[in-house]
Amino acid sequence: MFQLVISTENGTPADVAGADSIDHDGPRTIATWASRPTSLVAVGTDRGGFSLWPDEVSSAHPVVLTHLGVSVSTGDDRRPYAELVDAVRRGGRTALQQIAEAPEDSFADAAARSRDLAGPIWLGLGRDFRTFAASYRSVGSGRGSERLWDWIAPQWHGQGVVLPEDDRGPTRYQYMVGRGLSSQQQIVRRLRNGVLPVLEADITDGPLTYHTTSWVGLERSTLTAANNHGTDFLLADGRSAGHMFTPEQQARFDALEAGHAPEEETVFHTRIEVANHGTAPRHAFVALPLPYATEGHLPTDHSFDPVTGTSAYSADRVFGIFRVNGEPAPQQELSIVVPPGATLRVDIAVPHRPVSSERAAALAAQDLDAALAAVVTYWEERLTQAATIEVPEPRITEMVAAGLLHLDLVAYGTEPDGTLAPTIGVYAPIGSESGPIIQFFDSMGWSDVAARSLQYFLDKQHDDGFMQNFGGYMLETEAALWSFGEHWRYTRDRSWLAGVAPGITAAVEYILRNREQQRRPGGQRHGLIVGKTADPEDPFAAYMLNGFAHVGISRAAEMMAELDPELAARWQSEATRLRDDIRASLTEAVAASPVVPLGDGTWSRTAPPWADHPGPLALSRSGERWFTHGYNAARDTLLGPLWLATQEVLEPDEQLTTELLEYHSDVFFHDNAAFSQPYYSTHQLTHLRRGEVKEFLTPYYAVLSALADRETYSFWEHYFHASPHKTHEEGWFLMQTRWMLYLEQGATLRLFPGIPRAWLAAGQRIVLDGVRSYFGALGATAEVSEDGQLVEVAVDLDPERRPERLAVRLPHPDGPRSAAVSSGTWDMATETVSVEVTEPTVRLQVRWN
Prior knowledge:
alpha+beta; Glycosyltransferase; 4 domains
């Protein structure tokens, strides 16, 4: 005989499914089986249901669910609920409790415990899909010769260029700066001015320092915004990994590719300046680039001409132009004496595709100082057209500006006003993963770039309203609508809205038809949408997918209220109906899912990533193999119910959201972040909305320090060197930074809701200049006096769209303390001054006591 004793805090009886007998003994419910059950046992209470594995229940560690006020122990344990609560709490802490009680995290703290993923850099012009990847020996990923050489790889966006001279694979030009690999790796890399797509590196080799500067320019023209014509978005799209075309789109791509014959190539330049810091002459060594196919081990056949200093496949197929102190390089492997205090200069130019000898001669005569200056000016001007974010942490200030340019670098299309393909690393745009990219464009005042990026989804929309651009994913229609709605909130551009309304209408109606189909006999029980939402072939009703459908339809209704209030009301009703169906499904799923133990001795309810599955896949006992992408809980954390708080299905502060956050952090997360593709979990926003700053900052810094190259700021997709220059991940980092600095909440604009305390140390300054919010343009500064006692805040709001109130959080570096404010109300618990907004200009002084 086997018994479970269920006790409730309020003394109400519990329901137990499948027991041979159920008895009620006062506040206890005693369920009895002839033998220990081997399947999940479902328990219902007046505060919610849950399930458990009976073999996980013991009197030594009874199941205590404080959110439900219920405990479960074995039949020989008749202790009441309150006594069991005290018994299990033996000084342990949940992961979130440990974060809340620990000192506030920082980048330095996180970097000390995180992996360091250096990687290649991508350089290009922006808009033009003729890009280059480049790296130095043993920096980042790679095998064999990829880690032996310094290298340059021309790309069609993320797809390597295969030349007719060698069809073994994409061409990679391999060279070596200095003597080679030794016991030390003395390479320091940095972006020009910390932010521009110009790579600088210092390679130390004995008394010699090889300072390299790498950039991409045009073959003949001086790079300016006017002469960077870009690439048709569909041509770039077709060279992206995982892209999807209709037959009509494929035919157009084929025609574009056949006719692609640019008048000049993009060119990768590397200038090597060798300085001798010793007291005696020393030889400098440079091995000039050789062409290798990435699938081969031998260089591609070619010749070197010491008269012109060029390497070529044939007379009219020159792939490298090399100069030493302005003269043609005399040989492919250079060894040149550099006197003490002197400098040697080697210039390398690699066209995206080989050029004729005449064009190579013209390229050799180019004024490289002027060409580099033009490239620097080009990218600096791009930044001047965007908002400015400046914080006391220089790394973050630089990463915001560099990140914006990284996103811009791979947003392809024709200038000045063509549709843009907001690609995500090597991959084609995706409605979900391009979302943070587009939303950050809007946040930084690039509303035109955001609108042109959104147009991509309309230009490729199917006749039935469906949007599908990548890898068979089914969530693009829903997620894209969310970004359309966010753009409307930023801009309130009625003329734009009128132009895109037909596409939005088609997309919403497509989703609603899908919903109705699922409501028919044989469909999903709650009418939830079914479809593949990530790389694995999982055609289920994922909560992420349906949450996107809810927020997408809701945003579409908000937009359509401007043009057709009656239609908008119908859509909003459908969004509410879907929200209710998702919640009903989730309630059932949670009740059927096994509980898990937490670090403080209590237990938590759980949920599956999709409807009608008994609990998290990682906890499954049914024998399926769910491990994928280096993570046993990839599906549970990346596609599951935590998304619903971001997608406005769950409220940030409701009980179920709290439970989801608790068990994810304890069971599936490290440093409150997912293991695989951690930016796919957006729970950090939920923590901010709940006012939980440490719980936000810990994953913010942990993931940032581990997934982004610490020198060039480019992001990986995964922790195992998968997918470089991944702008989806970078986009979410940028949006997280935006949220920590300003965040909308109804009619309130929250300033600095997630900033670290260290940012308000004595003499520090935060500047937001020209950023955009739901309330229009925003300028804000917070300056701390040199003695650290006074903070002066200046806020400039859009006169036509200003919020009703400001909530300005100003955390003291040493912890919460009382303060005197010049206006408004100070709340020490939240460290926030609240001000009713009556004018577009707000000035505050906060003096800490």
